[in-house]
UniProtKB/TrEMBL annotation:
A Pfam family annotated for this UniProt entry: Extensin-like_C
Domain Extensin-like C-terminal: 63-241
The name this protein goes by in its record: Extensin family protein
Organism the protein comes from: Sphingobium rhizovicinum
Superkingdom of the organism of origin: Bacteria
Length: 241
């Protein structure tokens, strides 16, 4: 009798596990962005593997540009430039679009994977946070540039920065629709709306970029967010500070 009870108990537990597995699979099928083997779609919400898929675009410029086209992102592909450790071949420049955030200066041309992540950041993170906190959208994002042929931290030796291949952009400030500016340098500290917005923007970027560095990282980033799409992000090795 005891063996029968144990058998029945195991069958009940197994049945419960199978039901949970089925329900979990059914839920995941409704969220392809949470599965590692599904294709990236910029129209979908941010999922568990969105960041990895974005980083994987570093070695697939045609696919990246096709994703931008499919999402309706108005852009122009730039000619390859640079040389050796500072060569780039997938830079794109965003064209002004009605209702979209503009970059200032507008001439910046990051790599396609950075632009793809930037647009998702705009749609899924920055604008929702601005509407929630300020009741209005962001009109412009000011930056310190993307491409720069240099090593990390400006050193004379060591690894090259992701800026050397246009795989990074440094974000300095956000300008709201009414003209109000929220800057990383002046508004990061504190407990008010501006600090809350900047932290929401930083935290949301961590799901989309391989590396996100803010004033919490070191003094060199006291006035900007460093966002990059290093190849290592495709394997899940990410940095968020």
């Amino acid at each position: 009798m005891r063996k029968l009870h144990l058998t029945l108990r195991r069958l009940v537990l197994l049945g419960g596990a199978l039901i949970l597995l089925f329900l979990g699979y059914a839920w995941l099928r409704q969220r392809p962005q949470d599965l590692p083997w599904t294709d990236l779609d910029l129209a979908q919400p941010v999922g568990l593997f969105t960041g990895r898929k974005l980083a994987a675009l570093t070695n697939d410029a045609p696919r990246c540009k096709a994703l931008l086209d499919r999402a309706g992102v108005d852009h122009v592909a730039m000619k390859p430039g640079g040389a050796d450790q500072c060569a780039y071949a997938d830079a794109v420049r965003l064209r002004p679009e009605a209702g979209a955030i503009t970059l200032a200066p507008a001439s910046v041309a990051p790599s396609c994977p950075v632009v793809a992540a930037f647009k998702l950041w705009e749609w899924q993170v920055v604008q929702p946070a601005a509407q929630r906190i300020y009741g209005q959208p962001v009109r412009t994002i000011r930056h310190f540039g993307s491409y720069s042929c240099r090593r990390m931290y400006g050193r004379s030796q060591g690894d090259y920065s992701e800026h050397a291949t246009a795989d990074a952009i440094d974000i300095a400030a956000f300008v709201l629709k009414d003209g109000r500016q929220i800057s990383v340098l002046n508004d990061w500290k504190g407990q008010g709306k501006d600090a809350a917005f900047l932290r929401a923007a930083r935290d949301g970027a961590c799901d989309l970029f391989s590396t996100v560095l803010s004033p919490d990282y070191n003094a060199a980033h006291r006035d900007h967010f460093h966002l990059d799409q290093a190849e290592r992000g495709a394997t899940g090795w990410r940095a968020c500070r």
